[in-house]
Amino acid sequence: MSSAFPAGTFNGLLIACGGLQPFIVTLGTPSLLRALALIYTGRNPILGVPSTFRRLFASEIDVFPAPVAVVAVLVVIGPALFARTPLGEYIFAVGGNEETARIGGVSGFLAAIILIARLGAAEPTLGNLRELEAFAASAIGGASLMGGKGLMTGAILGAIVLGAMRNGLTSRRSTNCLPRA
Fold it and tell me: What is the largest CA-CA distance in the chain?
């Protein structure tokens, strides 16, 4: 039994017994889990991340930060995985296959682990609303929000577009364009 089982069971009950839309449940559940994390931690970060763990993700491979190198490897391997393996087909059917849903949760967990290592602390609101960015990046990249259609490269390009927009909209020069009061 995976550690994500209670959340998955809760989502499944809301969808199957409550008749709620899966997309809405998927968006709503993280808010509940964040609230529970805030209650559990007393709104305080969890400190004391081991230095060896931090160094692993703060290191560089040539000129690239380690997380960028990991993503680059996944970008190369991912399309072949999706196109040529049963696992790739299952990933497109997340929610219809328990194992694939678990793997999807693992990938989100790995992203959180990298962020915790780089920050040196686990903040109870870590990744707040990142699920919306993941949905948006996938949609911009051409994936169907109902599932079954999309490309990994499209999602990555969508994430790059979102990142460029965020950086462009928060850059110092963009604030000079605002009218003065």
Answer: 59
